[in-house]
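Instructor's aside before we start: the two examples that follow are unrelated to each other. I chose them only because their records fit on one page, so don't look for a connection. First example below.
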Amino acid sequence: MATELSETKFLYNSISQTIKNEYLDVRQLEFGSKLNYIWSFFSVDEDSHINNKNAISFDITIEKMSPDKQFYKYSIKHVNEENHYEDKYLFLHYILDERSEIEKNNIEEEISQKLRKSKSFVINNSNSYVNEHFLFTVSEKGIALCSYDKDVKYGLNRHSRFLTLYLLAIAYNIKIEQFLEEGAQIYKIYRQKKDDKDANGIKDIIDFRESIYAFDLQYFFENPVKIDRYEAYIVWEVIAECYKVKHRHDEIKAQVLSLTEIIVKNKDQVIQEYEKEQQHKVEKAKQMEKSFQNRISLIGLLVAIVPIMIELIESYAGLRTYKNIILLSILLGFVVIFFGMFINSKIKEKRIKDI
């Protein structure tokens, strides 16, 4: 019953080429039976609907609501990366012979009941678009299309376009919320490792920010419909206003980008402070090394002078006793000097380890 749907050319190519969907002539669906299929956006993989990082997929179940009328209900669920269903939306499609059937069959009241489970939903200029071929309306949990076009085939193509637009609006909102959640997770990790000196950690933040820019450049448009497709263009405006697509996109994108800017700035500051501290330790180590070299030079000088002093004492004093005293004093001096050198070397080793 399902056939490939090629009518996505009313959208910009960068979006239409990544939509995976199916077309169904719902008039073939019998009362009491259901049909299920997957519809995906932003997917570039040929084999799977949802293994692409940007892909947003929906599980759609169609059922006929009346045994003798062309009334159909599309139950729409978002499929997340773990293949779990989230958030249920509705698309109500009424195929009529003429517009008067809307009032005759109390369709407006039925739409309100199904979309809000009450009579509070009122179709007006802010949430609908009406012309001589159809009535389209949108609420916070679904949309409804009453088609009374004499050209039934064109009416079915229209229904598929409007369903595409509705799902695209939801996909935009889901994607931007995913960006928000991902940004919050990055910030959480940043807070846990705030004082981490590893400059490589900044790469994840930069990659995340670039992924937002890349998604917007390829997929996001304030109105993704080509301007010469008037009906679809206006219907998108109605849907986007109801679902605050651009407002939510701009607001959350600004929050996420501001957050990444703060993290990058703070990370740079931590790295600069760390490098400054390291430089200070290196300079201090150089000073210690210089002091150590001076001591070595002094010892070398003493070692060179001692034989000369002994020769002088033997030549002019001729006293072995003095010689022994001097040798003992020199020996004690060496012991003190080498002990001091040993202590200094241990202190130096500890400081180098701390660096």
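Example two begins here.
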Amino acid sequence: MKRVRGYPGVSEAHLAVALNYSNTHLLGPPVCRELISLVEHMYTEEEAEIVQHVKPMRVRTAVAISGKSGRPYDEVKGVLDRLAHERHVILSFGKGDRERYLILPLVPGTFEMTLMRPDPDTVTDWNRRFASLFEELFSTGYITEYMKKPTDSVRYLPVGEVIPSLRRPSPRTGWRSYWTGTTTSVSRPASAASCRRLTAMTAAGCSRSARWSANMSPL
């Protein structure tokens, strides 16, 4: 197993989780102080002892993770469910004993899951700290290492302002793109734009609508 050195005072479990998030298949950043600080905020040391066995692109049940971690099943299941359904930092599929878990890329993936809330009043101090630490990591510019040439990606459009006659886009019908003439599906029309939410939490400021966003066109 690959190990990370050079960070005294950081638990082996947190370093292992940081290494998982640094996976290049997840467009991950190199292991650095900013990434480790974010991981330490996302998971307590006890949680990290379990989450280090939750791998990217490889779903595992609580039973399997319990076996890998050497922790009791009930403890592992409780931690995983809290992280997946309350804190929204890992993803899960299925129900009960057949529920399976995995980690997502920090962005796109974990960032959006953690900050997308239908009601701003549900945002906690934990979310605000997550937003601040994520911004510090993203500001290192690591993502540019994966963007050597123009690529189709996601463009967020504040649809509440652009098309005021339509209250929300429909996941079934989608939007008709002005630029390409294609129809784009909207998977979570009732969620506030996570990029707007981040700027609000970190006092960076953003003059655009924070209400609804749709994935529309190439960058």
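The longest strand covers residues 91-93.
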